[in-house]
Amino acid sequence: MRHNKKFNHLGRTASHRNAMLANMAISLIMHKRITTTLAKAKALKKYVEPLITRSKDDTTNSRRVVFSYLQNKFAVTELFKVISEKVANRPGGYTRIIKLGTRQGDAAEMCFIELVDFDENMAKAPKAAKKTRRSRKAAATEAPAAEAPVAEAPAVEAEAPAAEDAKAE
Q1: What are residue 12's phi and psi, to 5 degrees?
Q2: In the structure, what pLDDT confidence band is assigned to residue 137 with cuts at 50, 70 and 90?
Q3: CA 9 to CA 7: how far, in whole Å?
Q4: What Å distances lie between residue 86 and 78, 91, 126, CA to CA?
Q5: Which pTM was predicted?
Q6: Please, are residues 99 and 81 in contact by the beta-carbon 8 Å criterion?
Q7: Which domains does the chain have, with CATH numbers?
Q8: CA 45, 49, 52, 54 torsion: positive or negative?
Q9: Per-residue pLDDT for 130 more than 60?
């Protein structure tokens, strides 16, 4: 029985898994978005989010702790200088997983994993107004009702300048 054993081993030994997750974390930090399988992305999310949280506190000790995981000084510098500034006021949830479908060769579920604050497309896209579906019968009855106020509107506007002229005199 595997009670309370939630960790996904990804079919690898511990050393291989740690090396793979470190390399994927470095790639995510440097490129801000990577494409991988869904299982690896979920494992990477659990691996990299505590490192990003650690980077918010820029001390020598936190840099050493993060370096012990990543073993790449350029990635550590990028994490502490660029990424930590953007996520400073975010209380967790630094990564986003977007599913892409299945891979052609082995039908593995593929996905993007990206840093949330670095995706310009998601940040700038305004939400479209939701359109409600109406039956054709309801649309036909609303159309004449909508046209009637439009016809009366110019008459009201024409009366308003005449009233202003009368007050001016």
Answers
A1: -135, 160
A2: confident
A3: 6
A4: 12, 12, 21
A5: 0.70
A6: no
A7: 14-124 (3.90.1030.10)
A8: negative
A9: yes
